[in-house]
Amino acid sequence: MKKKEPRKYGLLVGVSRYQEESRSSLPAAGEDLRLMKSALTDGLKFDTDDIRVLGEAGTVPAKSFARALSEFEGMICPEDIFVLYFSGHGTTQGLCFSDSVVDLQSIVDFVERLSAGSKIVLFDCCYAGDVRLSGRGDLSFEEIVSLFAGRGIAVMASSAADERSWLSEKKDASIYTKIVAEAFASRRNIHKGYISLGDIADEVRYLMQLWNKTFPERMQHPVYRENYIGDIRFKVEEYHPYVTQKITAETEDYYLHSVKPLNTGLLKRFAAFVILKGSDDSVLPRITEEIVSQFRNSDVYASEHSEQRFKGKSADAIWCYFGHDEEDILRSNHFAYTIWAAGEDLRKMYYRENRNAEVSDGIYVFWNTSYGLVKNLQKTDTPEEEIVREYQELAALLTSKAEAFIKAFEEVENGGLSMKAMKVEFRGWAADVKRLFFKLSDADPAPAERIRWAEAILELAGWVTDLALSIERKDTGDGTGERWMVKHAVSRYYRSLDQLRDITQKLS
Fold this sequence. Notes:
The chain has helices at residues 28-43, 62-73, 104-113, 141-144, 175-185, 197-214, 284-295, 304-310, 326-330, 344-350, 371-377, 384-414, 419-425, 427-441, 451-472, 480-507, and strands at residues 8-14, 51-54, 81-87, 90-91, 94-96, 101-102, 118-124, 152-157, 194-196, 223-226, 233-235, 249-250, 254-261, 269-276, 317-323, 336-341, 357-360, 363-367. By secondary structure, it is an alpha/beta fold. The protein folds into three domains: 8-235, 3-Layer(aba) Sandwich (Rossmann fold), CATH 3.40.50.1460; 249-377, Diaminopimelate Epimerase, Chain A, domain 1; 384-507, no CATH class. The strands form four sheets. The protein has a seven-stranded mixed β-sheet with strand order 12-13-14-15-16-18-17. Strands 2-1-3-7-8-10 form a six-stranded mixed β-sheet, sandwiched between helices. The model has no long low-confidence stretch (mean pLDDT 92).
């Protein structure tokens, strides 16, 4: 069943006129509204009809804002995304509407209670960074793989709690709004048709750093905090994944389970995964020759680029991996593999001498002497439901650990915590993560129908462990490279989390 895309709602508020004479007018707030509306519709693909704008005439009383915000509660559903944007004056007491000041935290708390699964609040005003979000305890596996990713709230503020926010160089709009609008429209970090809020926040920080270097007298440091699981994603373009051709075949001697491309830059290669029906291993060279004869010219590619490069060309080399049943293929436990190569040069490259290998009728045959041992190790008396439950519990614990790390690292990026202090604080955390990873690695093999699911959990655990290893690295240089590695691991963790969700939903 195809997952329904969430509906995206926005409330944009720009206050440029004030009753109090002590507060100057802000004509740029009108341009901020135009920029943000365009950024949501053109950049993040919001529907214009789902965006409400307050302040086009300059005046926004606090009651009008409260009424408009409350009206969204009756429209939005748990799977939807809601964005609140504010441009105007801000003080240490809160946001300045035309007639009064409203406590900033109270607005965040109200939005957090809205029924939308994903909420985003953007404040472009002075002293906006002093916000707090409710925390989360340990997560259940069901919460991790729930249908709607990014369930929670994110706050993006233009400046730290003790900073002013500034207009752009031309003073036609706020610099933060201009930067956010540019980040919303950016297509540098699209993955499978989506752009994530985490990547947008990184883009905003980068662009603001450039501004700060150019205008050091008007520096501001944006703040980004969130309490959701995973990341909020926006579909910004259609994605059509390349589909590799599926090839199967069956004879009296064997069943060709699948074929996968192994192409390199210069050579067309593929691997065939074969289930032998009998016990006569001497037929492997002949079966290999049959597969080469029938499928050497097959169009099996991993990408459109590879297809364009090799289409119409015969394979240069073919590997055949043999198992006695489908579980051997799924668990990559092959009792033997063979290689056929075209030409003497390729044979010299691939037909390596080994005491467990031989060349028979021009086919290289390697015998896996560990096959029986691995087969026995993959057997277990533990009930399948207990194995699945252990994987679920360990995945939930590791994800909870990752989320705690990411929230703390956001404060490093916000400038409120040093990387050195974080390393000290998370030293015990890193030890716990490694312990959980080793426990997962030693868990009983997952049931055959859940092998890909278990592999997805192990991949997720690997990226969380990478975060733990980053804590134990010695400080080098100014920490820029170190922070980049953390961001990379976080990005791959998010992708692994999405993959696990997709696989889990297909199993249910």
